[in-house]
Write a structure and sequence with these properties.
The protein is α/β, with parallel strands linked by helices. 33% of the residues lie in helices and 20% in strands. It is globular. The termini are far apart. The protein binds guanosine-5'-triphosphate, magnesium ion (MG) and zinc ion (ZN).
Amino acid sequence: MTLQFSELADLGWVPFFDTQLDQDDLSATIPVRVMAVHRNSLSVQGLGLRQIVPPFTADPDDPETAATIGDWLLLDPQTSLPQRLLDRKSLFKRRAAGHARKLQLIAANVDTLFIVTSCNQDFNVARLERYLGLALEADVMPIIVITKADLTDDPQDFVRRATKLMPGLLVEVLDARDPDSVAVLAPWCAVGQTVALVGSSGVGKSTLVNTLTATNSIATQGPRADDNKGRHTTTARALHRLPKGGWLLDTPGMRELQLTDVQSGLAEVFADIVDLTQACRFADCRHEVEPGCAVLAAVDAGVLDAARFKRWQKLVTEDARNTETLTGRRARERAFGKMVKGVIKDKRKRKRN
Ligand SMILES: Nc1nc2c(ncn2[C@@H]2O[C@H](COP(=O)(O)OP(=O)(O)OP(=O)(O)O)[C@@H](O)[C@H]2O)c(=O)[nH]1
Ligand SMILES: [Mg+2]
Ligand SMILES: [Zn+2]
């Protein structure tokens, strides 16, 4: 069963979402995409429909089921209230800084992540690997976009170094100010495609967005004072239409994405090392001093780059630390939530009797 509406495809609807609907859903509800998130409401868009609806969480016990930007919802046409959150193709999430480390959803159903760096001192393979881990963890296809090609004699050297990060990785080098140069990104900006950008300050993200959208709607930034005030030129969380028909995610949250819960993403970036660990003599090998360590052997034999191995170790340690504390906390929070619910139920029962 397929929804034959090109307008939905325009919004990013694909068969993956069709398969989640039965005949009743189709006749009784309207699929809409969350196009913008406001403090206390969502802007949604569907077939000939633009509307503001209240926030929606499918399972109050699970913060991951809160509708976020890019999500697809089924609306009840009578009440205009969201009824259901469709499964996502991809999800960016992060743990907020600070003590509670609350889960924040950044965006759902992004197809492509442009990992932006430039042909200068910003180019840093360890940082790129982190971003790759984030993309793969979120189930989003990463593309390395290297800007400022015009400022170096040998842009291809940067391409070579980036391409080595992962087998099959796509890398583009360009001048972010030049529409002809930026045109290489067109395939990922076409109708129905949703793209997002990450990268350090000053690499040219806003410049790239301006060129992609052929406007000056998103301010580029010159050097600025180092207090963080006024730093986030773009504060809305919204999907913006690209001239090629795709959607560009614009949210400050992408800036704060960090390395939490990204084991599987990292395992993909460093698949070769993970494979090697299978051959270590001890299942709990830490690849430090253990006899029969296949990873150390590969480094010794010159098959595995020692610096890359070090970066992997550092990422894995960091991730383990983050995840461990989170799992513990989450379990406690769940237990507490259940307890509170139980008490409330109890009270209600007693009142009724
Ligand atoms: N020569 C050259 N300059 C560029 C290129 N891309 C960006 N710039 C310049 O680099 C500076 C920073 O670019 P922005 O687009 O503001 O960088 P940004 O990534 O948005 O930075 P934040 O918003 O701070 O995260 C601007 O002066 C741009 O004009 C490029 O490909 N070539
Ligand atoms: Mg910017
Ligand atoms: Zn080992």
